[in-house]
Specification:
disordered C terminus, alpha+beta, 39% helix, five-stranded antiparallel beta sheet
Length: 365
């Protein structure tokens, strides 16, 4: 993710911010520009953008921003609806009779917005199921009830998340029970989006044969494969072929786990580039890092992987220095790297052609 600054005073601000701590300016996210912008009052319930890209244009806050304080996205003042491009995708929210549920809802929406930022950057902006009932994307955030346990998952464009995943204590307990090295709310969104985009990018396309060569035949019985995984544990030697033990359960899960890691890598490298992160070690045999372009401004997968290995090395080293678990506790075997390469090629194939001048302008931004 790129860095953001207040349009009024230049202070650095962040993706989740609603106000500049320096000048007090009201902030809001403009998804069409991928920018946190500063706004000034422009009349009753409308705000005037100070972003140089559209200075003076009037916007309104998403109703979940103005009334519920769980969003910070904006939409044009003349837009017919009240919900932003992110909140339109949420079909069911938790019961707000519980204050804890409101907190969980806010955390879920914040993680979902980070996923959507990445998808827009990948030129994979999803439509809502209201606008596209057949191919659209929707989310529902549900809680367990007596006799009914909510399972996080995806089915026909609907991603369901158990709101308990927004509770760090519950999530950590589950991570330990499942023997997982890594479990985050954003990771859930990335994983489940992988299932959605398998249906949109791979199923029924010319990519399918190569997918099966790398990931396996997805036509094998899914329910039986998962039951076998939970009963017997992961495949022996899974570390040599899969990004995680769960990825070994079925080719669909292998794709979703690898897709999630691709998003993880690209977004982290993008942030490192925006922050000007470089590694210039004193010894020549230690990893160096100079990211010259945003990850998706180049088609060079080998370059992306070299940058990722160097960045993961320093991230893990820094975490260990402050007594925290590794930020990236995974080993990328050669088969996994080839799967990531395949995803990179599929994503780049969706990228629209642009002129050299336009590419340079975007890269500079």
């Amino acid at each position: 993710m790129k860095t953001f600054h207040c349009d009024n005073c230049g202070q650095q601000v962040f993706f989740e911010n609603i106000r500049c701590e320096n000048c007090g300016g009201m902030l809001g996210y403009q998804p069409e520009h991928r920018a946190i912008s500063t706004f000034e009052p422009g009349g009753e319930a409308v705000w005037r953008s100070l972003n140089p890209a559209n200075a003076g244009k009037l916007y309104k806050q998403c109703v979940n921003y103005s009334r519920e304080d769980v969003c910070n996205w904006m939409l044009p003042a003349d837009a017919p609806g009240e919900l932003c491009a992110s909140c339109q995708l949420t079909e069911i929210i938790p019961a707000l009779s519980s204050g804890q549920n409101r907190l969980y809802w806010a955390r879920l929406e914040a993680a979902k917005r980070r996923l959507l930022y990445s998808l827009w950057e990948l030129h994979l902006q999803p439509k809502s199921r209201y606008d596209d009932p057949e191919n659209g994307l929707a989310f529902q955030f549900l809680e367990d009830t007596p006799g009914n346990k909510v399972l996080t998952g995806h089915a026909s464009g609907l991603i369901t998340l158990n709101i308990a995943e927004a509770d760090p204590a519950h999530r950590e307990k589950t991570r330990e029970q499942m023997h997982e090295p890594y479990r985050t709310l954003l990771g859930h969104f990335r994983h489940e989006s992988g299932h959605y985009y398998f249906d949109r990018l791979i199923a029924g396309t010319g990519w399918l044969d190569r997918y099966r060569e790398l990931f396996g035949d997805e036509r094998q019985d899914y329910a039986q494969a998962l039951q076998t995984h939970y009963n017997n544990g992961p495949q022996e030697g899974w570390e040599q072929r899969y990004i995680s033990s769960y990825a070994s359960s079925h080719p669909w899960e292998d794709w979703a786990e690898t897709w999630a890691h691709y998003l993880h890598m690209v977004d982290t490298l993008d942030t490192a580039f925006a922050c000007g992160v470089t590694l210039m070690p004193k010894k020549s045999n230690e990893p160096e890092l100079v990211i010259e372009k945003r990850p998706l401004r180049t088609g060079e997968f080998n370059e992306l992987m070299a940058e990722w290995f160097a960045l993961a090395y320093v991230l893990n080293s820094l975490n260990r220095s402050i007594g925290m678990p590794d930020a990236y506790p995974f080993t990328l075997s050669t088969p996994v790297i080839e799967k990531l390469r395949f995803i990179h090629e599929v994503v780049l194939a969706k990228k629209p052609a642009v002129t050299v001048d336009a590419m340079n302008a975007v890269t500079a931004a």
